[in-house]
Amino acid sequence: MRGVDTRVFYIKIKTVLYLLLIFTIFPPTKVRAIDRPNDAGSAINVQWQKSSDDNIIGGYIIFKRVLPDTTYQRIGSTGRGVQFFEDDNTQDDEEYDYVVAGVHNTELFYSEPSNVVKSYPQVFHTGRINVLICIIAFTFALSYFVTKARTGKNLFVRKIPGLAAVEEAVGRATEMGKPILYVPGLGDIEWTATIASMNILGEVAKKIALYDTPLIVPNTWSVTYTVSKEVVKEAFISQGRPDKFHEDYVRYLTEAQFGFVAAVNGIMMRERPATNFFIGRFWAESLLMAETGAQTGAFQIAGTDSVLQLPFFITACDYTLIGEELYAASAYLSREPLLLGSLKAQDIGKVVVLFILLGFTILTFCNINLLSLLAVQ
Amino acid sequence: MKRIIPLFICLLIGFSMIIQFFIPHPTSLEFGSTIYKWVIVLIVFALVLAIGNLIRHHGTKIRRQKKDWPYSIVTLSSMIGMAIIGLFWGIQAESLFQKIYLNVFAPLSATMFALLAYYMASAAYRAFRARSLEATLLLAAAFIVMIGFMPFGQYIHPRFPAFAEWVMRVPNMASQRGILLGVAFGAIATALKIILGIERAWLGGKE
User: Fold this and answer.
1) Of the candidates A231, A258, A312, which has its C-beta nearest B123's C-beta?
2) Model's pTM, two decimal places?
3) CATH fold group of domain A2-110
4) What gap in Å lies between CA A39 and CA A122, rounded to an integer?
5) Rounded to an integer, what is the distance from CA A225 to the centroid of its chain?
6) Is the pLDDT of residue A374 over 90?
7) What is the ipTM of this complex?
8) B41 touches chain A (CB under 8 A)
9) Into how many domains does chain B fold?
10) What is the mean pLDDT of residues A48-77?
11) Mutant choice from B40, B179, B194, B207 vs A, greatest count of A C-beta within 10 A
12) First-to-last CA distance in chain B?
């Protein structure tokens, strides 16, 4: 009998302690609901201060009420230690308030309701102010140097061996009586590298038109095909040689990456171009094409902004336009003062960025972290 | 007019898309989405022209029996065959189209990709001949990284793998970021030059 009494006593004690524990758990506090910033509406952020018993409870459950309703609907849950929930299922014309409950076993400990809030779309993304400032500053710099170039002031541009060799490359093909192959990359027209490649193609095609050398421009995308065809055609017309342009110069091959490689390699092996240009955006196919070209003994000029493909081109080609040289090529080849002026703006931009990076690094050493100013949302 | 209209469209759409980037309002997002849909429509039109070019090029080659013309028969018959199979029997899983794609096209693509290993060996041989200071530096860096990432590296010296990791993380990363910085400015400048009509090579130059 004594043993049974003791067990009943302990059960009673445990029950009392459990009830005490339950009644002393504090709910989350200071629940605040705000419209999610910089969005298209339909979302509200809910924040709260976690419960004082955060280490005991199992997590939080979030409830929402559409005013003037009286009942709250459960909309989600989080683990313990969390103080934030994103409700991305709201109507912009309705008012809401929120309650957050701490969970312990099956018991819920409710907070006070939050403020009443409405979601709405923003007309300006404040998280992108830094980008806007940079674009405006760069546009001003560009306009300034272009205007300066228009006055006729001679701007110095360092020699870029890869571009200086274009004349030699075209001349070589003419002397050998063999075609020139120009691959504008595997990027579609939305890639800036492809657009830069089209600009270079225009300048190369002008030289080719003068020398009357056959040209092969294989394309992987239908839009790049139509653009490159127009670029080559216009280049021939601008040189007074529209009759020398053949529709066959610019070809559409396939959108398949390795199908394109097989076709281009086939062209290189069968038609043996004297000069190969690989200029634009490239991926894994870069070495397959450049190495085949090297094996055929062609003179090769490559250019890409893809950092990972640059080593392949450097090893397999005679000249390689590295990164920004690709974008400078059009200005370098055409020698148009307006385009040369834009190169100066790029250089100034780089100097400014260099100073910003240097300044921010020094400030970080002084425990002043301003890197968040550079973050783009 | 032939120049002015494309330049005006380029200026209008270019600036509209820049402004759209800064406006998260649904109207702005809808505008962006509509432009992208129009791009798809343009791609379809361009595809018709591109396929026309493919048929014309290979058709002429077959008709005139130019050098290697039988390959053109393979190209055209493959293209037309796949188009007919896809149009009449569908492209769903287990369809004939998918079977040909998975059992013919995919292995052929994989074969091309696999050739990369051999091409890398021959390119590495050419690059690693220490003919100049740059080539010697390249050879030394490649040697350190390759040995460092092999299990054998730690037997040479316990700190060898860490040194190889440092080469990748510090000098290599610094140079990559330097290139990327130049690329970013070049890309922005090219985009602005085209939008503002300063760069007109894509229209055949200034003439």
Assistant:
1) A312
2) 0.87
3) Immunoglobulin-like (2.60.40)
4) 6
5) 24
6) no
7) 0.92
8) no
9) 1
10) 93
11) B179
12) 13
Report the number of secondary-structure helices (H) and strands (E) in chain A: 11, 13
Give domain status of residue B116, yes or no: no
Nearest alpha-carbon partner for B186 in A303, A152, A287, A308: A303
Decide if A40 and B46 are in contact by the 8 Å CB cutoff: no
Task: Give the CA dihedral A355, A358, A363, A368, nearest 10 degrees.
Answer: 80
pLDDT score recorded for residue B130? 65
Structure tokens of B182? 């130049």
- Alpha carbon separation from A254 to A248, A271, A334, B68 (Å, rounded): 16, 19, 31, 19
Distance in Å, alpha carbon of A208 to nearest chain B alpha carbon: 14
CB contact under 8 A, B205 and A238: yes
Cα distance between residue A178 and residue A207, in whole Å: 15
**A161 vs A158: CA distance, rounded Å:** 9
CA distance A67 to chain B (A): 24
CB contact under 8 A, A342 and B176: no
- Using CA atoms, how far apart are residues A140 and A146, in angstroms rounded to an integer? 10
- Residue B34 inside a domain? The answer is no
A201 three-class SS = helix
Q: Which domain holds residue B195?
A: 129-207
The verdict on residue B60 lying in a domain is: no
User: Is there a domain that residue B93 lies in?
Assistant: no
Give SS3 for A68.
coil
Do B179 and A307 count as a contact with CB atoms less than 8 A apart?
yes
Question: If we measure between CA atoms, which residue out of B119, B22, B91 comes closest to residue A309?
Answer: B119
Distance of residue A304 Cα from the nearest chain B Cα, in angstroms: 9
Phi, psi of A63 (to 5 degrees): -120, 145
For the domain with range A155-335, which CATH number is right: 3.40.50, 3.30.110, 3.30.1330, 1.10.3470? 3.40.50
Report d(CA A235, CA A251) in Å as an integer.
17
CA-closest candidate to residue A98, choices A54, A52, A67: A67
Each residue's pLDDT expressed in tens, for chain B with a length of 207 residues: 778 898 999 999 999 999 999 999 999 999 999 999 999 999 999 999 999 999 999 999 999 999 889 999 999 999 999 999 999 999 999 999 999 999 999 999 999 999 999 998 888 888 777 677 877 888 888 889 999 999 989 999 999 999 999 999 999 999 999 999 999 999 999 999 899 888 887 776 655
> What does the domain layout of chain A look like in residue ranges?
2-110, 155-335
Q: Is B183 exposed, middle or buried (0-12, 13-18, 19+ CB in 10 A)?
A: buried
- Considering only CB atoms, A128 lies closest to which of B22, B25, B127, namely B22
The Cα A18–Cα A107 span in angstroms is 12
pLDDT over 90 for what percent of chain A? 72
